[in-house]
Known about the structure:
By secondary structure, this protein is of the alpha+beta class. It has helices spanning about 5-15, 40-55, 60-70, 135-145, 150-165, 170-180, 180-185, 190-195, 210-220, 225-230, 230-240, 250-255, 280-290, 295-300, 305-325, 335-340, 340-350, 470-480, 490-495, 515-525, 550-555, and strands spanning about 30, 35-40, 80-90, 95-100, 165-170, 205, 260, 265, 270-275, 375-380, 385-390, 450-455, 455-460, 495-500, 505-510, 530, 540-545, 560-565, 575. The protein has a seven-stranded antiparallel sheet with strand order 1-18-17-13-12-9-8. Glycine binds near residues 371, 374, 392, 416 and 447. Keywords: Acyltransferase, Glutathione biosynthesis, Hydrolase, Signal, Transferase, Zymogen.
Amino acid sequence: MHQPILTRLSFVVALWAGAAPAFAASPAPVEGQNGMVVTAQHLASQVGVDVLKAGGNAVDAAVAVGYALAVVYPTAGNLGGGGFMTIRMADGTTTFLDFRERAPLAATKDMYLGPDGNPIPGASTETYLAVGTPGSVAGFEMAREKYGTRPREELLAPAIRLASEGFVLEQGDIASLAEGNERLAQDPAAAGIFLKDGKPYAMGDRLVQADLAKSLTQISEGGADAFYKGGIADLIVKASQANGGILAREDFEQYKVREMAPVTCSYRGYEIASSPPPSSGGLIICEILNVLEGYPISYLGYGSAETTRLMVEAMRHAYVDRNTALGDPDFVQNPVEKLTSKAYADEIRSRIDAYRAGVSADLKVNVSPESPETTHYSIIDKDGNAVAVTYTLNGSFGTAKVAEGTGILLNNEMDDFTVKPGVPNLYGLVQGEANAIAPRKSPLSSMSPTILSKDGKPFMVIGSPGGSRIITITLQAIMNVVDHGMDLQEAIDAPRIHHQWLPDRVFMEPRALSPDTLRLLTGMGYNVGIDPDWTIWGEAAGILVGGKNLAQIEDGDGTGYYGAIDSRASAGAAIGY
Ligand code: GLY
């Protein structure tokens, strides 16, 4: 590889930085010897730890947490949405559950286009037409039946209690509700729950969700059938039909979870298991890491112009593939082998100019967007069973509509499809035909619940919300631990950059890059600046095994589990025991 001047400059800086590659100042990760649960809402984390302490395994805890977050984290926790679960059992077997929403049977490719052929504003995000058939309950029940050990009633009991008795709203809960109040106010059923006499809740108020408690109790008693073949489906279909939607009873009856192998790849000796299509997440993380593996990233240093430009170029190429080539595996032939191959990474590296910024317009054209209001949680138990779950309503509170009588918020996941090729979605992604709408199809996702292992043992459990940024957030948490030697909390908290091919712009969080670095990058032709939407960058949740950072793990100085919830998450907690 030809070494540009920038590389040599970075080299000098790296030498000067010497043996202290991690620099960020963050609180220490939370330590636990027997188990760790990290979620975006502290009450849900406690639910998970209580399940582990009572003898449940990580999958049991993941199921109980999934139901609990539907109560205490309504912005993204859900029964009316969908998601993914990556499981690595202590014996090293891995699996992946896809319980993402599916398009209703009556869905059509052009269902969001008006007579002029252009997208009808809000149709794919704010109306009952935006709702995909929910998958979360089916997903949790399959996980519990196949990989859990505890009875359904036991795992639902904490969620039922939190819904029926209510929970006291703290600062983080209020901040999260504040983002939805305006939209929630427009739906009488939602307003009746999430507003107090039409006004926003305040800190110290108790949020009781009686209808949701009733729905959870029905699921506890009747299992997934209570949701998909019983009164809950009836109420959601009734609300949909009364409000211009297309959900039908058959959509619920025919819903099926898909179990498949995770996408796998290696990065500097670590085995990665992550989400396969219908998520783009695992594939694109692998593609970017494969490209970056060919460069001395650790040596070049965190936040240097050289590291940043290599990351940006790898992201640029990978997001072209994400946005043009990928879709639901039942409908599209996804180039999984190619995108995860080291040879393809070689080819991409050969196309990266050592001196000048790449130009997105020169790469194949396509693209659609995604919402940041998803949630991720990571769990590990005393035996080393590890679970990573990312699930979502898509936008914050989904459609912000509740089917009357259910207490269940409904997703707007249909917006993750290509509404019209080339037209950016809610979050600026421009997508193509592979992700076109079709009945029973799942929209392409970026959710990336990921588990790393080494020498047959779990090493890291990681994931994040963040729409199209989920991929680069998860990627940077991995790089910060593996390449930059940060401890887990630092790795998650460190300011981030993001590039998604289109728009051709390097987004950064405030202070992610120094003024000097910005000058160097600008000089090379990069359009780089603070993301105007930087407050929405996702809140990662992770666990490291055997040490708080790589040095401690490699020295064998640490034991147990180290958990970290993103400092950007104001209601979350890592709780170990
Ligand atoms: N709705 C966010 C995602 O699935 O990536």
